[in-house]
């Protein structure tokens, strides 16, 4: 049975549609990431899922029971669903241990395990005004987790973190799923975070779900240019463009990611082209290649190419 069932959720404010007939399910321990442009409705949806917002119509079922909206209960929220807002705040000048023991429902041993998983054991005797952003966030998370939620709902948890703290948080979330059997749903703008972390991605635009699927599916077969663009650079080739690279599309178009092209110095290995632009991106180079008047973005890990080089390009088979 699904842990969470979101059924036909809609919401309007002043005739502006914030959510339009949103439905999806989350299985126990499934990791779902919701992405989409700013204003797509992600926060509004998370609040409704966790009982901190009110839908106009539709139902959220958690463990097959209705989650009451914020206007249907005195204290908004659901005791088994922990919601961490993008704008959480820790009480100032408290010891961390005072905060995390407050509301604790775990045994001392399990609380200790949780503090270890959240990488905050070394911070327990620290005051809250002497913490980094990443540390504060893991403490805010831990304050929710000591209450033994079943579902963790996180709004943009990676948005203010550097790559090191982002990786720590992803590891923490994975260990919570494995060690404490907690399911998680989160929002993120960053394709790298959603692709590497999620089992399932939901892409939203203007209050609607535009595509839902496994990360590989969303990345390689996006339903439209909006979804393609959310997950990085892409080439949209018409049938005529594709014919340059020897692909027959019968009038259709195809979307190809930059890494789907291969460059070679061997004339037998593709069509002749020239490198018009080149930029270093850390672990790869991004090239703009012109071949028979068709310009494509190409990604390569090789440092053998220079702007102005002539080479031969083909689509990876
Ligand atoms: N209480 C409100 N009254 C009127 N409009 C609202 C209200 N809350 C949100 N909105 C609008 O609803 C839309 C969706 O907002 P929401 O915060 O859910 O989007 P989001 O996808 O989370 O955006 P972001 O990624 O920028 O946080 C936005 O256009 C926002 O301005």
Automatic annotation (TrEMBL):
Gene3D superfamilies in the record: P-loop containing nucleotide triphosphate hydrolases
GO molecular function terms attached to this record: ATP binding; ATP hydrolysis activity; transmembrane transporter activity
Superkingdom of source: Bacteria
SUPFAM superfamilies cross-referenced by the UniProt entry: MOP-like, P-loop containing nucleoside triphosphate hydrolases
Residue ranges occupied by any ABC transporter domain in the UniProt entry: 4-231
Entry keyword set: ATP-binding, Nucleotide-binding, Transport
The protein, known as: ABC transporter ATP-binding protein
GO cellular component: ATP-binding cassette (ABC) transporter complex
């Amino acid at each position: 049975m699904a842990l969470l069932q979101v059924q036909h959720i809609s919401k309007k404010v002043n005739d502006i549609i914030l959510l339009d007939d949103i439905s999806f399910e989350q299985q126990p321990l499934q990791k779902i990431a919701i992405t989409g442009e700013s204003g797509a409705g992600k926060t509004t949806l998370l609040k409704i899922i966790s009982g901190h917002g009110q839908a106009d119509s539709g139902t959220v079922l958690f463990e097959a029971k209705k989650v009451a909206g914020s206007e249907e209960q005195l204290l908004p929220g659901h005791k088994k669903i922990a919601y961490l807002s993008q704008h959480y705040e820790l009480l100032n000048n408290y010891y961390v241990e005072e905060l995390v023991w407050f509301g604790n429902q775990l045994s001392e041993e399990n609380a200790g395990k949780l503090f270890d998983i959240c990488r905050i054991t070394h911070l327990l005797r620290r005051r809250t005004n002497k913490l980094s952003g990443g540390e504060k966030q893991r403490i805010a998370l831990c304050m929710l987790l000591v209450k033994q939620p079943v579902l963790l709902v996180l709004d943009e948890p990676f948005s203010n973190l550097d790559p090191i703290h982002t990786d720590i948080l992803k590891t923490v979330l994975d260990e919570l799923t494995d060690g404490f059997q907690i399911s998680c749903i989160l929002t993120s703008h960053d394709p790298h975070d959603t692709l590497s972390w999620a089992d399932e991605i939901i892409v939203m635009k203007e209050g609607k779900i535009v595509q839902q699927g496994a990360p590989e599916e969303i990345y390689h077969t996006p339903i439209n240019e909006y979804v393609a663009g959310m997950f990085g650079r892409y080439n949209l080739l018409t049938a005529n463009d594709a014919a340059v690279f020897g692909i027959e599309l019968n009038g259709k178009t195809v979307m190809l990611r930059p890494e789907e092209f291969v460059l070679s110095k061997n004339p037998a290995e593709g069509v002749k082209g020239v490198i018009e632009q080149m930029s270093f991106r850390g672990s790869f180079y991004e090239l703009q290649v012109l071949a028979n008047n068709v310009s494509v973005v190409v990604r390569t890990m090789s440092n053998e190419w220079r702007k102005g080089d002539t080479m031969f390009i083909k689509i990876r088979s």
